[in-house]
Write a structure and sequence with these properties.
29% of the residues lie in helices and 26% in strands. The protein is an alpha+beta fold. The chain folds into two domains: 8-127 and 298-327, Aminotransferase class 4, branched-chain amino acid transferase, N-terminal domain (D-amino Acid Aminotransferase, Chain A, domain 1); 134-292, D-amino Acid Aminotransferase, Chain A, domain 2.
Length: 328
């Protein structure tokens, strides 16, 4: 899905026009994949535009950065204000928000600590990640020949740019085989996750999902579904899952910020259940959309965005004021 440009991107403390958001070709990130990012959605709820679980995403971002011996130049509250401001300045009602932290221009050896750590936040309109019909009708997927990275090679729990070289291979292979997505196994041959989604299986009324030790990303939407299920009295089991369970499950669905809650209707050509989204999948979708569409939020997961410019914090104020003057 081609990007639809908006007006501004925030980079290192100031807003720049979309087409001017550039880095040097010799930046460390270009050569060694040294970046960490988040995918966050803002929804047009009945109560106004709101960002879903913004604080949780930003905390995960900080942990990802820390795993690679880097330090965030901005704190959580500052980035909360930036994310809100990016939505406001671009006049977006509903969008995908991408904060990214990366090692910039400074040194070009593998050793990264002499390079500056830089931050950018962009937002754009982005629809259904796996296709317009995916959330309603489900998708066909295949088990990938590419294994998920082992946790002692790179920290799989970090949402790091370099990790997604593995995900790219999974996604390309899936597309070549006619599938919407691929499922990776871990190095022990157990179910891990999709190229950009966590996975859940329903078997005899029990909800199963791979544990963190299966080389998965600790997903924010994954946690959301586990919360819903436990409230509904549905048993949730985080355990290693043999590949064979994929073909005998009653229901399977993906979770992720981009994919939201997407049913899986077949794996390797084997129909899952009736081939249609099952009742537990529908219940999880209903609970999810009640929050992000209706604005019902008993958890405090929504950060509402006003149409006015949000209040800026300390060191951002001067930089943004100068930028405002340049952009008039």
């Amino acid at each position: 899905m081609p990007l639809k440009p908006v007006r501004y991107i925030w980079m290192n403390g100031r807003f720049v026009r979309w087409e001017q958001a550039r880095i040097h070709v010799l930046s460390h990130v270009v050569h060694y994949g040294s970046s960490w990012f988040e995918g966050i959605r803002a929804y047009a709820t009945r109560r106004g535009t709101a960002i879903f679980r913004l604080h949780d995403h930003l905390r995960r971002l900080e942990r990802s950065v820390r795993m690679y011996h880097a330090e965030m130049p901005y704190n959580e509250e500052e980035l909360v204000q930036v994310c809100k401001e990016v939505v406001v300045r671009n006049g977006l009602q509903e969008c995908y928000i991408r904060p990214i932290v990366y090692r910039g221009y400074g040194d070009l050896g593998v050793y990264p600590l002499n390079c500056p750590v830089e931050v950018a936040v962009a937002a754009w309109e982005w629809g259904a990640y796996l296709g317009a019909e995916a959330v309603q009708h489900g998708v066909d997927v295949g088990v990938s020949s590419w294994q998920r990275i082992a946790s002692n090679t790179m920290p799989a729990m970090a949402k790091a740019g370099g990790n997604y070289m593995n995900s790219q291979l999974v996604r390309i292979e899936a597309a070549r085989h006619g599938y919407a997505e691929g499922i990776s196994l871990d190095i022990l041959g157990m179910v891990s996750e999709g190229s950009g989604e966590n996975i859940f299986l329903v078997i005899d009324g029990v909800l199963y999902t791979p544990p963190l030790s299966a080389s998965i990303l600790p997903g924010v939407t994954r946690h959301t579904v586990i919360t819903f299920a436990r409230e509904e009295g549905i048993p949730v089991v985080e355990t290693v899952l043999p590949r064979g369970l994929l073909y005998t499950a009653d229901e399977i669905f993906f979770t992720g910020t981009a994919a939201e809650i997407t049913p899986v209707r077949s794996v390797d050509g084997v129909r899952i259940g009736s081939g249609k989204p099952g009742p537990l999948t529908r219940l999880m979708q209903e609970r999810f959309y009640r929050i992000v569409r209706e604005g019902e939020d008993p958890y405090g997961w929504l950060t509402f965005v006003t149409r006015r410019a949000s209040a800026r914090l300390g060191k951002l104020t001067m930089r943004e004021s100068l930028t405002d003057a340049r952009l008039q």
